């Protein structure tokens, strides 16, 4: 017999389970039944591909109460566990991610655990000793025993049937809690009906008659299911303690018939940005699970969707390779994509608040979808995007931008920066405010890439307020052009001073009260340069930047005067002006000491 300690994470979760006073303890049974059902699924699926596995079709989950010995047993004829599996699955909880989620999100409320899929360990909420007798089809029988904190032991046993029997020794009653309730048949029946009714295998309790209806939730009639039931199913199945933002339940008859039950989570799953996160829907063939994460059913930009699809038109032993080309699966995937999109559009239209919450959680995913694959899917997604409008001071769609556009305006203007408030202070924004043009404020790193992938919206081009070719007033532009021509030599001298980073210095009329700004020429903007320089690539991509000086600001006269009287000082001024323009853009200075010395010298004069 091997005596072992639990791995550290498991031990901590275990402690929480053993000592939890407030948690909804009822869920322990749901967890064990769900494991049993999964184990049967696995065995029946394996038997399709491996002819050596002999099964009879009499799958069931039997529960028995032995009041005298304070024991509940849960027996299944599923796949069982080999010695290694037993060790890996019940010796550690690391896979389930519950604990890391709890810590990352700083969840103090212990009750959260009760609503979460905590799995096997939740049995320790009600038991002081758990025995697991199990046999896999390709190993001997083994028994795992644990009384919680002081570890567990594994030993070989004689066990004939494939499957698992779990025996829980129920804790003695304490003042705060009557554990004996779990030895009551009535109470257990209630729990099973409440949480596990849809399980497709018969669940029996102290008798031969199944107490669950065995109709999977997704096959039930929509109007027979209430929201609570949908949500409860979601919690158990997809291990999320929060209710989903939306449930989509559809049933399609025709060329390809299927039922789908899809959920839009209300927050990003804890492992969403983990490289191991896998998108996909569970795939059932006539109620039998054939794949846990069928990627083919979801496009990348909807990878946050949780759910399942059940179709009677799929072959049971379909392989992964075949699945990829399977016409039926492709058809279902197309339909599902349309359905999700339609649901999101409706939400956008009728439940703006909910949509905004959704967008805060998953908007990035949609933007990425627009940008990815050279904008191939942009038309599907463009109307689902939201951006901050300067005029309305809230998130709006591109359609709403166009609808509120001035007749004279023929472009969609946008500005990029770290935050709404910072963009709002950008010198380049001033003239738009004066003209009462709306500007989309983009604050996320993907935003500008998304806009560039879109290229245009309903025939209107997107223009960055910091781009070089922005022409708002023809008359004034002519004047500025002349001014630049007249001062060509001076501007050339100034450019020499900052030529490492700037390819032109010129006067501008785009600024109202601010003295300087940086603009760019070409497809790379300053914001994009910031994003790309943060990426781990050797070659640094630079925006082609222009230092623009407000022709109507007193600083213009000052530099013209210096050009005549003191060229050395003009060079110093140029450095300072350039430094200011960088700081306004949220860029750092390469030479802060030099700039600070120049300024100190100036002000001490
Ligand atoms: P989860 O079900 O979320 O993976 P659990 O802690 O409930 O986490 O179970 C851990 C693992 O132990 C399962 O993934 C499964 O491989 C195995 N397991 C649990 N119960 C059984 C069972 N009745 N039969 C076979 N394997 C089981």
Report on this model:
With 605 residues, the chain is an alpha+beta fold. It has four domains: 2-205, 2-Layer Sandwich (Heat Shock Protein 90); 217-352, Ribosomal Protein S5, domain 2; 386-464, Rossmann fold (3-Layer(aba) Sandwich), CATH 3.40.50; 474-604, Four Helix Bundle (Hemerythrin (Met), subunit A) (Up-down Bundle), CATH 1.20.120.790. Helix content is 39%, strand content 20%. An eight-stranded mixed beta sheet has the order 1-6-5-4-7-3-2-8, with helices on one face. The chain has a six-stranded mixed beta sheet with strand order 15-14-17-16-19-18. Strands 9-10-13-11-12 form a five-stranded mixed beta sheet, with helices on both faces. Helix 9 packs across helix 10 (352-375), helix 10 packs across helix 15 (447-454) and helix 19 (554-565) packs antiparallel against helix 20. The longest helix is centred in the middle third of the chain and has 24 residues, at 327-350. The protein is elongated, with a radius of gyration of 33 Å. The protein starts with a strand and ends with a helix. Residues 31, 35-36, 39, 76, 78-81, 89, 96, 117, 119-121, 164 line the site of adenosine-5'-diphosphate.
